[in-house]
Amino acid sequence: MRQGELRHLMPALANKTYFNYGGQGPLPEPSLEAITASWRTIQELGPFTSAVWPFVEAQVAAVRSRLAAACSVGLHRIALTENVTSGCVLPLWGLQWQAGDELLISDCEHPGVVAACRELARRESLSLAMLPVMALSCQSAAADLDGAILDALEQTLTPRTRLVVLSHLLWNTGAVMPIAKVAERLRGHGRRPWLLVDAAQSMGSIPVAEAAAAADIYAFTGHKWLCGPEGLGGVALSERLLEQAQPTLIGWRSLRHEGSAGSSWHGDARRFEVATSCVPLLAGLASSMDLLDDAGSAELRLTQIHERSGQVWQGLQQICGCETLLQEPPPAGLVSFRLTGSGVPSPEALVAQLGEQAIWLRSLDDPHCLRACTHITTTAAEVDLLLAGLRGLT
Ligand SMILES: Cc1ncc(COP(=O)(O)O)c(C=O)c1O
User: Fold this and answer.
1) Does the beta carbon of 140 lie inside 6 Å of ligand 1?
2) Which has the closest alpha carbon to 101: 128, 82, 74, 81?
3) Residue 109 CA: which ligand 1 atom is closest?
């Protein structure tokens, strides 16, 4: 399928100029239809009859297998979740801690994940430390960034570090973190700190296999760059985490024999699955992943995403008073920027004013700025509209 064809399958893109893929991806019509068809099949077969279970199991198995392939890990390492946050938090809270252990969290993590780490630290008497990546990602030339991040890691690791939390693609600055290299460094540390990677922005936008296989917890969702429905995500877990972590939010899906409360947990990642969830969403995510695959490999899609984000970044350089957070065109699809100067509306006001022209991007609190995302469905004409809209308001 060509890029333009996918765009025309998305009702959300028919009547607006959309740059919020990092918030939520548009759902293609065939995925919407796949969800409805699955829902109908479940009602026709069941919904709670022996006739429906083989259908449900096939849907679950198909998506688990697709996600395992995307992450380049065995099926046993994938748990299905509802969203990124539960994929981060459920396995994290199942780990064993000792009072005084240190959690090293980057300064670009999402508030929900940071809040969960803070509460974990409070309950288990752990300490928190910060890995400073925001300024480095804004100031470093792309070629120097990996080295700068690894230096910062070296300076902030202590003998007590037991966990590092670092997103793969930073949701605020748009820089890519060297996850596999960080994992390698942590393997040489005396405490072998766990590596939790928030993959909210990377899954579906950049190749993830190397990072997903290297992290202990690689948590993602289907509803952003994979353009699936909201309410379905997944997490890839390392072998050592599966050996050591206990389930957190426990339900029948965590059990090897779901009918017996005395059953042992699943030996694999299903230990972190909980209970009833919305089966038809699986068909929607599978359909969206098929459509993306039809559009090209993850590498090819990144080239297209990159071309458009580069167009946004270059165009912003021409707008008087505009400062992009990154000093070079972004490595993926997130472009963050500020408009400065007297009388320039706040990011929130600019979002509202562009929204009136059906151009949608978002503001961020930290750093306080605007963020426009480009996907393979973004056209050059849309980028021109955005740039013209911004020029008109500043
Ligand atoms: C980096 C990052 N982490 C976590 C989240 C939360 O995602 P979810 O609602 O799927 O848990 C988001 C959502 O915007 C995000 O950008």
Assistant:
1) no
2) 128
3) 1
Q: If you take atom 7 of ligand 1, which residue's CA is the nearest one? A: 84
CB of 201 closer than 6 angstroms to any ligand 1 atom: yes
Please tell me if the CB atom of residue 110 comes closer than 6 angstroms to any atom of ligand 1: yes
Answer yes or no: do 117 and 177 share one domain. Answer: yes
Name which of 103, 29, 61, 22 is nearest 287 in CA terms.
29
pLDDT band of 106, cuts 50, 70, 90: very high
Sign of CA dihedral 261, 266, 267, 271: negative
Q: Order across the sheet with 362-364: list the strands.
A: 322-324, 334-339, 369-373, 362-364
Listed residues 291, 308, 342: the one ending a domain:
291
pLDDT digits (tens, 9 = 90+) for 267-311: 999 999 999 999 999 999 999 999 999 999 999 999 999 999 999
Give per-residue pLDDT as tens, 197-240.
999 999 999 999 999 999 999 999 999 999 999 999 999 999 99
CB 59 within 8 A of CB 38: yes
**Structure-token pair, residue 276:** 């009833």
Ligand 1 contact via 84 beta carbon (within 6 Å): yes
CATH of the domain at 16: 3.90.1150.10
- Which pair of tokens denotes residue 313? 């970044």
Range of the domain at 133: 40-291
Q: Is 171 in the pocket of ligand 1 (CB under 6 A)?
A: yes
User: Rounded distance, CA 81 to CA 86, Å?
Assistant: 6
231 lines ligand 1 (CB under 6 A): no
Distance from the alpha carbon of residue 85 to the mean position of ligand 1, in angstroms = 6
220-248 burial code (b ≥16 CB/10 A, e <16): bbbbbbbbbbbbbbbbbbbeebbeebebb
Ligand 1 close to Cβ of residue 102 (< 6 A)? no
